[in-house]
Design a protein that fits this description.
- By secondary structure, this protein is mainly beta.
- The protein has 4 helices and 12 strands, in the order βββαβαβαβββαββββ.
- Strands 1-2-11-10-7-12 form a 6-stranded antiparallel barrel. The chain has a 4-stranded antiparallel sheet with strand order 5-4-3-6.
């Protein structure tokens, strides 16, 4: 259980370390996150903290959602997300509190959860990395096809999990154990080593890494 900070993916760039190393990084706008609601085991059945991120015009906010934000005494937000916490961790937060990059530190390892770019319907070559068939010895019209998908007379059906054409991307991806290279608290920016799932301006959830570096 850990607090997940809602961020906006700005894009990729590169920065130089003190030793002169060129490091590819993804820039995330990490705030502000506002505490919208505290959920407790006694009232809701579990302990969690609901955070809101981004601006939403009141005219684009439904009446039930507007009442939810009004009860918390905060302006409507574009994104809502819950983080499961322990009862002790929940006590250190209050409704209306603003959370920024101060919960992370440079050099810390984090997990990033986002939605990958949607590529539409794709074939097996692009989707699964199948080899393109040779263009000689009678091969025609099926250079990028999957080939046979059956298993002979038995079991006489297509086995579950067979790699076939279909939708590529637009799925939840968790990039694990990435390093925070730099934090700009004045501009609420975090620089993460490497690539982060999602398109530009996508919402990404950042949390402390759940596993040690191998």
């Amino acid at each position: 259980m850990a607090l997940e900070l809602l961020c906006r993916k700005i894009g990729m760039t590169q920065i130089y370390s003190d030793s002169g190393e060129c490091i590819p990084v993804t820039v995330l706008e990490a705030g502000p996150n506002t505490v919208i609601q505290k959920k407790t085991a006694d009232k809701d059945g579990y302990d969690a903290l609901q955070l809101g991120y981004g601006e939403r015009r009141p005219s684009r906010t439904s009446k039930p959602a507007a009442g939810h934000f009004e009860k918390a005494g905060v302006a409507p937000t574009r994104v809502l997300c819950e983080s499961r916490l322990t009862a002790e961790e929940l006590e250190s937060h209050e409704v209306g509190q603003v959370i920024n990059t101060e919960i992370f530190s440079e050099g810390q390892r984090v997990d990033l959860v986002g939605t990958s770019k949607g590529r539409g319907t794709a074939g097996v070559v692009k989707r699964h990395g199948f080899k393109v068939k040779r263009r000689t010895h009678g091969t025609h019209e099926a250079f990028r096809h999957a080939g046979a998908i059956g298993a002979g007379a038995y079991p006489g059906r297509v086995i579950k999990g067979m790699k076939m054409p279909g939708r590529l991307g637009n799925a939840q991806i968790t990039a694990m154990n990435l390093e925070i290279i730099r934090i700009d608290s004045d501009r609420s920016l975090m620089f993460i080593r490497g690539a982060v799932p999602g398109h530009k301006n996508a919402t990404v959830r950042v949390r402390p890494s759940v596993k040690a570096r191998v």
